[in-house]
Amino acid sequence: MEMIKIINLHKSYGDLEVIKGIDLDIKSGEVVCIIGPSGSGKSTVLRCINRLETPTSGRIIVDGKDIMDPDTDINHVRTEAGMVFQQFNLFPHMTVLNNVTLGPVKVRKMLRSDADKLGLELLEKVGLADKARSYPDQLSGGQKQRVAIARALSLKPKVILFDEPTSALDPELVGEVLEVMRQLASEGMTMVVVTHEMGFAKDVADRVIFIDSGVIQEDNNPGDFFSNPKNPRLRDFLGKVA
Amino acid sequence: MEFHFDWSVFFESIPMLMRGVKFTIVITLGGLSLGFFLGAFIGLMKLARHAFPRSAAITYIEAIRGTPMLVQAMFLYYGVPMALGIRIPPLTAGIIIIAVNSGAYIAEIVRGAVQSIDPGQTEAGRSIGLTRSQTMLYIVWPQAFKRMIPPLGNQFIISLKDTSLLMVIGVGELLRTGQEIVAVNFKAFEVYLAVAVVYLAMTLSIAKGLRMVENHLDMKTTR
Ligand SMILES: Nc1ncnc2c1ncn2[C@@H]1O[C@H](COP(=O)(O)OP(=O)(O)OP(=O)(O)O)[C@@H](O)[C@H]1O
Ligand SMILES: [Mg+2]
Questions:
Q1: What tens digit of pLDDT does each residue of B190-223 get?
Q2: CA nearest ligand 1 atom 24, residue
Q3: A18 C-alpha vs ligand 1 centroid, how far in Å?
Q4: DSSP letter, residue A71
Q5: Is residue B203 a contact partner of residue B163, using CB atoms and an 8 Å limit?
Q6: Which of A79, A91, A103 sits opposite B121 (nearest CB)?
Q7: In this structure, which ligand is nearest to the CA of A44?
Q8: Distance (Å, rounded) from C-alpha A210 to C-alpha A217?
Q9: pLDDT 10s per residue in chain A (242 long)?
Q10: How far apart are CA A52 and CA A103, in angstroms?
């Protein structure tokens, strides 16, 4: 079943056309990694999926709902498609536990006690149950990002969108975040991951997509993507990062 | 005639001035409480998506900041009631004037603080399905409010001093009380000095209270 369907997506900022016609289908349970040079439009595509950016034209269907349809409750779509940001964006004035339970309590109207139980379970899952009462500023970058993943999971989304989740981390902290993401992938979570972590893409992704200049240049299984790239720009890109 | 400073007049006038201090405090606190709600409302209007509330907010802020408070006071106390055919007691008028005036400055404080919050916070809030107003209420406002405290404390001091202008509409606040004492004993130097000392005592107390609040907040949470 299609979890996300993107049809002829275009996005411009003023005169600058950033996304120039992208079509992409992502099936339930699939892990899709998106790579590409800086400024190529990777974040923009991801942010259009939960409408943090409004597409200029085209259609995006998330779990059967057209996000551009005025009758679609976008807040509901966002609970189905969680997001993890490069800069974590944890709420600094709330405890770690409250970061995770805010959505369940305010959006799902869950009872405080049930939400706390769920929150602790999720923190347990990312290995941070002992930090429930801490504040974000008392955590390392890797811990912050794991809390952010727990927060994204708190609404039981059907897909999670990751925008360079490890790019702001010190190298020694990257592994703990990727480990949590691997675990999610192995549990069958649908994931769209913008990343520079080629190792992760090779091991975990079902498909890898190369975006350059606002279009998809290559969409392939990780084996062929890395060892037998067809697109010359991708060959060039892989040559530079390898 | 030789001038000599009369300490007894200075000290005796202070308890008499307390009657005025009471009004000064009531007007300042009443005016600022209303002014805070007004300012928060206007400040958020200035950040609205639609052009109409934005320009309404800008017009209000510019009109108040670009005119002397004394003129605003005369207009609101003498002008507006005449147009509306009503009478407003001086104390009520004083509170309204402080509210209307401080509201414009507080609106800018609120707008600045809200805008200073990382847009990533709003995005994170919206990404978990919170509505625009829930995101403001639970995420942006609490963080912005903390940043408003120092400039609000500053506005507190300004508004307290501004209440002295209300003597022109006959509010029995501190300065007017001083003036009434001088009218009887002609000891302008001692009495107005006492008035100044009492104002200073109040503004210094506010400044000190503010520092305590800031330190407390710094200790309680980071960022
Ligand atoms: N809000 C915006 N206003 C104007 N231009 C923007 C905006 N957001 C992104 N852009 C531009 O759109 C282009 C694509 O940006 P995007 O963030 O999607 O790139 P990216 O592939 O995620 O890059 P990076 O690897 O640096 O994160 C860039 O040229 C960027 O400057
Ligand atoms: Mg990006």
A1: 999 999 999 999 999 999 999 999 998 877 655 4
A2: A38
A3: 7
A4: T
A5: no
A6: A91
A7: 1
A8: 6
A9: 799 999 999 999 999 999 999 999 999 999 999 999 999 999 999 999 999 999 999 999 999 999 999 999 999 999 999 999 999 999 999 999 999 999 999 999 999 999 999 999 999 999 999 999 999 999 999 999 999 999 999 999 999 999 999 999 999 999 999 999 999 999 999 999 999 999 999 999 999 999 999 999 999 999 999 999 999 999 999 988 76
A10: 17
Measured distance CA(B46)–CA(B35) in Å, rounded: 16
Between chains, do B121 and A79 touch, taking CB under 8 Å as contact? no
Interface of B with A (CB under 8 A): 118, 120-121, 123-131, 134, 138-139, 142-143, 146, 221-223
Ligand 1 atom at shortest distance from the alpha carbon of A19: 14
Quick check: CB of A54 below 6 Å from ligand 1?
no
- Ligand 1 atom nearest the C-alpha of A44 is 18
- Which residues fall within 8 angstroms of residue A31, CB to CB, at 6 or more apart? A185, A189, A190, A191, A193, A204, A205, A206, A207
DSSP letter string over B175-204? HHHHHHHHHHH--HHHHHHHHHHHHHHHHH
* Separation of alpha carbons A7 and A24, rounded Å: 7
Does A154 lie at the interface with B, CB-CB under 8 angstroms? yes
Distance CA B210, CA A18 (A): 48
Using the mean position of ligand 1's atoms as its centre, give its distance from the Cα of residue A43 in Å: 7
ipTM of the complex: 0.95
Closest CB to B124: pick one of A79, A85, A107.
A85
Tell me the C-alpha distance between A120 and A101, whole Å.
9
CA-CA distances (angstroms) from residue B53 to A85, B36, B39, B117?
A: 32, 18, 14, 21
Q: Partners of A211 in the beta sheet?
A: A216
